From TrEMBL:
InterPro entries: Unchr_phage_tail-like. This is Putative tail protein.
Amino acid sequence: MAKRITAPTGAFYVDNLEYINPADRGAVINCIPGGGETDVAKDVAIYLHLVSFENAALGGDARVYITPSSTGVQTLAYDQGAGGFQAGFSGIATVRQSPGAVVDDELVLVFQRSTSFASLETVLLEVYGSVQGFGSFSSTYGFTIEDYTAPSIFEVLWLTPKKVRVKFSEDMEMGTDSDSALFYRNYNGGVELIAPNKIKLQGAELSSLWSSLRVGVAGSTYPQNNGYHEIASVDTTNSELTVSSAILDDDGIDLNEAGIIADRRTLIAVVSPYVLSPRLSDEGATDPPQSASRIQCAYCPIVVATSQPAAEELPSGASLLQYVYLDLHDDISRSRLYRLAGYGAQDVWDNAMSGEYLDFQAPSFQLPSNRVGLWSVGIIPGSDQEEDLGDEGQLRRMAVVLQDVLDLLWHKAYQVQFVEDPFRCPAHLLDYLLYDLGNPFRFPLETELIKRKLAAALHGFYQKVGTKQGIKNMIFTLLGMQITIQAYVTEGGWLLGDATYGLLGDTTYLGPSGTFAKNCYEILTPRVITAAELRIIRDVATWADPPNMHLVRIIENVAGGTEYDTTDLDLSAGNVSP
């Protein structure tokens, strides 16, 4: 990130002049970093210039104190009368004469602290000095150190067993580059595992910058091949990734000596900054064998897609740059211990993640507490459990795998009751729900959120078809925009077929007929709209307006548009019966 650097030149130069008391006869000028400056390097060299305003020398008693906000401790950095720079600081002190002066009326200090300042801390400098025969002067100012702390995963919120919302500790880059928190490349075909440690992505354009990321693999019959692999290097010419873990042959199904995949096997590979892994740690090691804490994850799905939430999906006032959705290719195990780590994704200050992680326990996803547990409720005798844990743990592994299958089947069955609920319907069934509701619109539904909003609004929309309020409600639901619908205003144009309207010679234009104008309306939007929003407004309005009404135009960016009242026959202009 670019930083502002100010340096004095040989000519007369004054910059960052600090507070001067009119009674003082000296001052501190040319402070680098300047007072109030932000994003200052953690190992900054501090520049101070003390000058006398009189034809007199400085007093030789200059002192500089530094107080970092991380400790709040005031430390003497320089004492001209007591040996100069103090312990923990080093630099150069130069006493000199200004042009035309006959005494040493300037002191230039350039110094550094031996230890780096803390990330984002405020550093307070207090400078004291004097001018011989004229008294003392002082200056106090501060600056803020750059953020150089790597971001971390602060919170996870599981929406479904396949989708989680991740919150970071600070704002992240949200572009398309490999250092973005949204970066991913999903390959559902042309994936070859090339022994012993290479993955080939047929026809893919790879980047050498991916060496800081991870590649997730799914679909291999060898469990060791599935999961995440650290990318050691990238061969952009041959579209190959060299990984740090071993890739095993799968009887010619995943690979063979020629590196050719059999047609009956389709592998998935995803390059992303994220690793979801089981926590096979010492947690629960001292608990009884029947304890649920002794049951660890059986399977760990890979991240296959990322997206950014909409503002309305986040807490009020939350920063959009701190949140990311992660979609998995399969369900996570319920109520098990997991770790989510990040690699390569950068915050807005260009600090990259290098394995920062968050440990958590997966939610139960409405799994009843009294569900049968193969390992924890005594189905397997305790003596067998103890013997198994003392040996290879194969029985426990089998119980965990079967438990995951049972839990998955229960959850799938449990979700059937929500297939017609717009808010709880499984995401992959939303298109079918909209079809079943008779969705009349053909504009693209690009996000899960807009699909759910449309599904929830269709019933009420059908009840208000042919009304102005129905159009306004649907557009507000989809776009969050309060539009104005009003009668089409011809703005003084001649009415077609009406010879008495206007006078010849007037500057005007030929408008439509009175009958046409009476059955027309226009829409005013409070802001400029995109092409996609324009299509939504047109589709909603033209489908829902009365049969004899016509949308003539959409006027954009009309703040607080005026809605005109029409005049009906035998009614006054105010729509009040005479």
